[in-house]
Amino acid sequence: MSEIGITSIRSNFDVSMSIDEFGNAHKETSSFTWANGETGTIDDVWFRTDTLHPLDESLDIQVSNRIKELPDLQHIGNMQSLHQAMASDSTGHLTQLVEELVHTSSMSNKCSLLDNLLYEWAGVSSVITQNKAPGSPFDDRLILILDKKVDKKSL
């Protein structure tokens, strides 16, 4: 530290509720002393993040006219828009699920198709689920979908 002119760093901190103009929270503050006796401030900054709307939207994926005629949902987190995901799916299974969903009139079929569509869109359809409790309707893939949407990893 002496090489850069710092003689001491206060190891205790004060709790702060300060939010800067960029939305970053300065949660803990402390100080240090320069060799000339002046003091400086140290902040523990918690940067504002938006994992639901990533900044990189530059995917250049060609979407066919067939897909353009189907419903679309915007990208969110680590998930492409529904149109982009359908265009990227070389098996065509996701497009087929969306088409079936659009054309079925049975509400129970729509619910089942929607679950499968979400799993396929998020890329978790092949995950083997392990219910948390015997007889529980909970499906681990739902957590994996949420993880992708908010750019987190549970597993």
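Next protein, fold it too.
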Amino acid sequence: MTEQLPEQSSGTPRHPAQSESDRQETVRQAPEQQGPEREQPHAGVVADPGPAAAPVDRAGEPATPADRPDAAELEDRWRRAAADLDNMRKRFTREVGRERAAERARVAAAFLPVLDTIDLALEHAGADPKSIIEGIRGVRDQAVAILARLGYSRQDEAGVPFDPARHEVVGVVEPDAAGAPPGAVVTVVRPGYGAPEQQLRPAAVTVAQSSG
């Protein structure tokens, strides 16, 4: 007769029953199999944030030492900037010199008619001596007009109140003898030119003595 093998049921094989002591051992080993617990920081202790983030370049990629300029490149940049500054300073100096020369030329050209008038007065001095006086007066008027166009008008008014910004006292007279009110300009000894904020020189004047 053929020996019949015991039938094996499909599914998970059954394990023999565990004893109570074996189950307790399994329970005790379970926490160890889950791995060590993460240690919690103590109160008042700041956790280490880890290594600092590496610097990034403009493209958003971390900058490497090869991307940073070395000492030679920095020195070259500094020398280039210093050379540009020196060239700018020299160019500014040349431009200021040209402006000053142009201004001197304009002022000199403005006085050329004065020289022409003097030449005409000298040419006619032999025929009529009075023409010299007229020539000198004409030269004076031309010079005054030129200074006025340049912004320096003539200041030679008498009888006006004394102004320390416009006048320079060279003498003091009695009000009764001068026939002027106290503190007024009696005579102009030397005219001034220009306003107080832009003045070539103040007018030299005599002033009536003020009371007190």
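About the second fold: The beta strands are 154-155, 167-173, 185-190, 192-195, 198-201, 203-208.
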